User: Fold this.
Amino acid sequence: MTTTPLAPASEEALAEIIRDHAARRAPLVIRGGGTRPVGPPLDGEVLTTTALSGVTLYEPGALTLVAAAGTPLAEIEALLTEHGQRLAFEPMDHRPLLGTAGTPTIGGVVAANVSGPRRIEAGACRDTLLGARFVNGKGEILKSGGRVMKNVTGYDLARLMAGARGTLGVLTEVSFKVLPAPETEATLVARGHDAHRAVALLSKALGSPWRVGGAGYLPADLAGGTSETRIRIEGREDSVRARGEKLVRHLGGDWEMVRAEESAALWRELREVLPFVGHDGAVWRISLKPTDGPVLLDLLGQDGLAHHAFLDWGGGLVWLVTPDTGDAGAAIIRGHLAALGGHATLVRASENTRRTVPVFHPEPPRLAALARGLRHRFDPAGILNPGLMDPAPAPLTEHA
Amino acid sequence: MELPAPDPSILARRDAILARLRQAVGAEGLITDPVETRAYECDALSAYRCPPMAVVLPKSTEEVARIMRICHEEGVPVTPRGSGTSLAGGALPTADSIILGTSRLNRVLEVDYDNRFIRVEAGRTNLSVTQEVESDGFFYAPDPSSQLACAIAGNIAMNSGGAHCLKYGVTVNNLLGVKMVMADGEIVEIGGPWADLPGYDWLALVTGSEGQLGIVTEAVLRILPRPEGARPILLAFPSNEIAGACVADIIRAGILPVAIEFMDRPVLEAVERFVGAGYPECEALLIVEVEGSEEEIDTELARIRAIAETHDPIEIREARDEADAARIWAGRKSAFGAMGQINDYICLDGTIPVSRLPDVLKGIGDLARKYDLGVGNVFHAGDGNMHPLILYDANDPEEFARAEAMGAEVLRLCVEAGGCLTGEHGVGVEKRELMPAQFSRADLEAQMDVKDVFDPNWILNPAKVFPLTLSAPRRERRRPGAAAGADSPPAPPGQAA
Ligand SMILES: Cc1cc2nc3c(=O)[nH]c(=O)nc-3n(C[C@H](O)[C@H](O)[C@H](O)COP(=O)(O)OP(=O)(O)OC[C@H]3O[C@@H](n4cnc5c(N)ncnc54)[C@H](O)[C@@H]3O)c2cc1C
Assistant:
């Protein structure tokens, strides 16, 4: 393993490196800023996209932004802010939770399909992705989608790349639909509810016409002794106030309205998983049916699995910390999800745990076979992050 | 437009194949009478027709699986069909194929307001999904103009959009899960009433894959609470350029309307003549609709009005109530019908960057003069999805050929402007041969690789999407009764554990 990563400065140079490694069957570890090393530890020469940097097109009047994959996320966010716009999916910064350094890149955000609390209203990263260019494991430069809002021309390989974590190709350029940033925001906070009651309130709010853009719950143990149910509203000042009042009447009970900067801090806390920063243990990210969030927590309690947990996405996202011993609770958690539906990713754990516990939720056999089939077509030499999304490589069959 | 020659060995085994299908779904699920199969020989792109070998109408996912197992074993091509409203020939059969229709798969399976989803069988019509939940204050967002007829299955296959997708997205943004039957008959479930997928985004691949990757039998759809209200404003301008600039200014100002519709002069004239819409005399007309509470709507419309006033509008009309709103929308809703009164038309749906609206509209006008054909433009301006309607006389083959040639040039113009061949109707057979205008050979091979992985024998809607000569080697690998896996690629290289 070399210490200086390969950092090609052009798509063509990147393709050349991949062709060379494919010919030698020499594995590559694909990185953006290296701030989100989720997955089992990987072996190989590090290839980073950071030298492919810069916004190549930004048309505020068309809500479109195109950037090279290695462009720092911060640079894009600053540019958008200047024009009163933003990436609606609110990507999480993994550095606090994972204790990583470095500069998050837009390509890394897409490769990991990173979305934050606003996902319930604005969709995931992949929902606003309009197109992508990438180099597959054969060193071919490919494109899918484009820079327009609507596009059904051919298969959606761009969205396939989102969340594929570099295992099917190395992203070189991505384009997005961006959205206007609101004038202000506020959060309604209710205290003292248990998780079931909280999720019932969040469901009621999300089922109302008042455009809830964040719905989370911090239990007493993570909120300084009294639980907090949080509902975010964004928009123009008068609209935020009016919707807040309507929601309070609709939901009943006591709600405090937290404004502007203070409100933003509440969502940064959930988005960046700050309650688990400095908290030892394995961190799980579980996506499931919102009303099953509290149900899962009850089941884990009955099983005696020591844990702390909080909820986002109206209950549909459970952030869970468990002791980083044995399988870190994998069998219990995934056992319950087999019955409830949903999936669990082991976002943070010791190297040893990540080597033995599948980090990504195992898929049913036929889907796992399709995944292997795709990897074989896009990366026949098996050099792009090999083993990252295939913890138990099995013989390839395109038929079950 | 060309279809591959039917496989004689399949036609020769027709009776045996149909007997097996009859056994699988019962006599009432199988249509073989040539008079009855006539209804299935085309979709809404009715210029192209071909009778299928038979039509099968299963009642359950298990029946679909049985049918697919038989077709897999017999090597019979399958043309999936929802309601047959495709404008791209997506549901056009070949003579050696069976149509697998979803019309009897139309039950609502689950409605869950707490978790904001509905689970339906895929043959259910788009509008009836919203109707199922609207009395409880919810709706299903993608609303193609064909929503009364088109099926969720077809919407997923084409990734259909609607007038409101600027705000709510298209099908792919509103689909949470599917149950699907693979080409060999295995049933898979993808996603569910929760966010994201644990591995690769199978939902994004299946959405827009035009029936080439599997037969979708059930869908989990996101439903949304209905907004408190919605009202449009009408803005009339002296030129397409000015209207285009106004669209960009509205968006730049941070306003996100639910719809921005654009009509140009030829369409406005047709609408005036045939339905007397009472629109102002102008070159370009915008209808902008916003949602929210009464106060929010008032504020947003006032802001839009202020922006429009900086562009020398000929007239601004703000809807004060529902009756006003209906009057403003009436002309737009009848635009396609009104154009159809003038002549037959080809409806294109290339998409372009919004900033290129004025010059692409001008380019389309130039092409209309070059080909000596009438053209009108009515489209979703907020998202750049153009719908040029090229007028021609269906009884005049020469004029139809000219219209087709002009259509191809218009689509190339859209691609050159940074856009794409199709924004919501799909490629089907119509735009298949134009794909190289947008994609390189390697791009298309990569897409066909995906199809190989899902459908190694290419029995699902095989002669669509990809240029025929490019897909031929893969399609022709399919042989009746070919053993599954016969063409599996070599074993993968040893992976570093
Ligand atoms: C008047 C009119 C207006 C229209 N307006 C719009 C519009 O505003 N927006 C828009 O996006 N489209 C529009 N369309 C196009 C068309 O309605 C859509 O493409 C629609 O989604 C097709 O649905 P369908 O059920 O009719 O599908 P079909 O036409 O039957 O089939 C469409 C495609 O889906 C595949 N398919 C069908 N069932 C399945 C299944 N179970 N599994 C896998 N694949 C399947 C077919 O093979 C075919 O490729 C319009 C069409 C008309 C005629």
Remarks:
- The first strand of chain A starts at residue 28 and ends at 31.
